[in-house]
Design goal:
The protein is an alpha/beta fold. Helix content is about 30%, strand content about 15%. The strands form four sheets. A six-stranded parallel β-sheet has the order 5-4-1-13-14-15, with helices on both faces. A five-stranded parallel β-sheet has the order 7-6-8-9-12. The protein has a two-stranded antiparallel ribbon with strand order 2-3. Bound molecules: SN-glycerol-3-phosphate and magnesium ion. Magnesium ion (MG) binds next to loops. This is HAD-superfamily hydrolase.
Length: about 375
């Protein structure tokens, strides 16, 4: 890379350029772009860092397309050359969940069947979408029949994952992954609750254990129903509209409201059992840090680039970016600092629920402050 060769060149001049021992993790929505529009000084910021060979990664709770596709889009939009070694999306960690690759999984969220194709690129062999289920059984959620023409071009016949006596009960789902924001909350909530009330994830059945006060969790999710993985906790995010919009966390909260109403919820001692990844959770920050360390090493020709002393997490959402940056304890001993910008969810005059190390106007201010702070 240019950073490696330029350092080698400098070394011949007997100067000993040090590889920067600090780096950046940039949130995307509300920091670099607002939906499809780049923010004013995003290009200047990333270009500057690349000219100085200061490493950075993009770390987003967004997703819905394969990393290679999204990186190409962002490179064009921001007019900066990015690649997948410096890019972590909400669902990127799902690519490592090999134990489900040969199972039948339900993937929710995103436009058309983009997320099915992402899952297949990750190596998942049998991927079902809510559109497939509605197309095969329109009666499960009659209010979405008007959308059948939207689903038709992307739906596929349901896999025969088991051979029951009743063919209508041939689909068993082994795990549910929410890759991105569902577009049809009514359909997706209906399908998720049908699966979680089912016997062993077999679509169209009911578990006899449901609502049994003698069983743990009142008998709910105690009969081999599929685990549920959410990729992004964001209740709100910064889209093009000037006020924050509901995110995947909004969908999950809507589901949890329906689930509590159906099961009695916490009053009956029933908890919705799920896994949520994404910022601010440790798993995502640890995954991102590994990606950043590897990318930094690549940047300097695979040489040992020395310890990464500090990472500046630049974000717009106190709940995901600042809370995560503040609380992450790096196993490498790297110090993470958080910088909050006012170009997204958080705006001037608000008091953030999670106090950043520094609050600034935009991403350029963040980098200028951090470069000084790193000295
Ligand atoms: O769906 C995207 C949204 O939840 C937030 O994305 O880039 O601000 O983490 P980002
Ligand atoms: Mg954001």
């Amino acid at each position: 890379s240019i950073c490696h060769s330029s350092r080698r060149a400098l070394q011949t001049l007997s100067t000993s350029p040090r590889v920067p021992d600090f780096a950046f993790a940039f949130d995307i929505d509300g920091v670099l772009v607002r939906s499809s529009d780049p923010l004013p000084r995003a290009h200047k910021t990333l270009s500057y860092l690349q000219s100085q060979c200061i490493p950075f990664i993009l770390l987003t709770n967004g997703g819905g397309k394969h990393e290679s596709e999204r990186v190409e889009e962002l490179s064009n939009k921001l007019e900066v050359l990015l690649d997948t070694t410096m890019f972590v999306q909400s669902h990127t960690p799902f690519a490592d969940m090999d134990e489900y690759k040969e199972k039948t999984v339900l993937v929710m969220g995103g436009d058309q069947d983009n997320c099915r194709r992402v899952a297949e690129k990750y190596g998942f062999q049998t991927v079902v979408t809510p559109g497939d289920i509605l197309t095969a059984h329109p009666e499960i959620w009659p209010f979405s029949s008007q959308f059948l023409p939207v689903y038709a071009p992307f739906s596929r016949p349901l896999p025969q994952s088991i051979n029951p006596t009743d063919p209508a009960q041939s689909l068993r789902i082994d795990a549910v992954f929410v890759y991105n924001d569902p577009r049809d909350w009514g359909l997706d909530i209906t399908i998720l609750k049908d699966l979680l009330l089912s016997r062993a994830g077999i679509f169209g059945t009911l578990s006899p254990k449901n609502n049994d006060p003698k069983l743990p969790n009142h008998g709910y999710q105690q009969d081999g129903q599929p685990p549920v993985f959410f990729s992004n906790p964001d209740l709100v995010w910064a889209a093009k509209y000037h006020l924050p919009r509901l995110g995947q966390g909004g969908f999950r909260e809507a589901f949890e409201g329906v689930w509590a109403a159906l099961t009695g919820g916490s009053r009956a001692g029933v908890e919705f059992q799920k896994t949520v990844i994404g910022k601010p959770f440790r798993q995502t920050y640890e995954f991102a840090e590994k990606r950043l360390v590897a990318h930094r090493k690549d940047l300097f020709g695979g040489q040992d680039a020395g310890a990464l002393r500090k990472v500046y997490m630049v974000g717009d959402n106190p709940e995901s970016d600042i809370r995560g940056g503040n609380s992450y304890e790096s196993p490498l001993g790297t110090d993470w600092a958080s910088i909050l910008v006012r170009t997204g969810v958080h705006v001037e005059g608000q008091t953030p629920a999670w106090k950043p190390n520094k609050e600034v106007g935009d991403v350029w201010d963040a980098v200028k402050w951090a470069v000084e702070d790193s000295k």
